[in-house]
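Recap for those who missed Tuesday's class. We walked through two folding examples back to back. For each one, the amino acid string is listed first and its predicted structure tokens come directly after. Nothing is annotated here on purpose, so try labeling regions yourself before you check the end of the notes.
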Amino acid sequence: MERTNITYKTLTAADYDELFSLWNQVEQTKRALNPVDDTLEGITRYIKRNPTTCFAAIKDKKIVGAILTGHDGRRAIIHHLCVHPNFQRLGIARTLVEMAEAALKNEGIQKIFGLVFKDNETANSFWERMGYSLRTNLNYRNKSLNDAIPTGE
């Protein structure tokens, strides 16, 4: 697959159907979805709150990669970095992360974190190459305020 003719744009809520379809074509992303936050309503709310930090990679007018990144004014979190399997290893994920980092830095954010399943070796290796260190001195605590959202393992 050639690297040319891939363009990038800021995601909008209008991209939801195509974005959701992409997520469901990538097993590791599909398993991270939840039935509330990843609905049209949830993603619309997320993009409205983070209008300049979510991006898509486009090839032949279709979304082939995407990153959702948001912040609370202090720290940023990366959600759902995803590249369609037919377009992996072309530098798309790297470009999406670099775009998100630049947008966050432009908003005054100095630190970013992300969550990756422990058994997702490909993603963990990618994040290591991107300069994201593994924090071993913290415990991730989780509480769902909605019965439809599983608390996780």
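Example two. Treat it independently of the first, because the proteins are unrelated.
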Amino acid sequence: MNEQVTSRPAGRPGGDRLTDVLHSAEVFDGEPGCIAQARALADRFLVRLAAEWLAVLGEHTRSDLMLAVSELVTNADRYSQGPYLLELEGTAERVSVTVYDSSTALPLFYSPDPTRPGGHGMEIVVALCDRLTAERVPVGKRIRAEFELSS
């Protein structure tokens, strides 16, 4: 497990809100407990975002973000053959949750069907976030869920 955390550069009071973000990332190897560790990373990130950026995180937003992290990391853990990276970026206005994994297979998006056993992870993420993108990248794929925060 490798964790990287960055925030506003020193020497720039207030920073440039167009380019500055709070950033946190960690690599997971798929060992037992990784999903709980990913959620803990996201929780620490959200605490810092609220404290340092004065982001308004209602319980609904916090719960949505944590559930999206769980679903995206669970999919990476289940479907990739190797380590995966969870990256969190945020400002007072928005948060993105990005997962990179080694599989080039893009996720399948099903229509809601309560009788279907399984396959609901991406359906849940789509319902929770404001924008979702999935694309192939040189290391496999990147899935990003973006959340607009209330001000």
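Answers for example two:
The longest strand covers residues 140-148.
Helices lie at 34-53, 59-79, 121-128.
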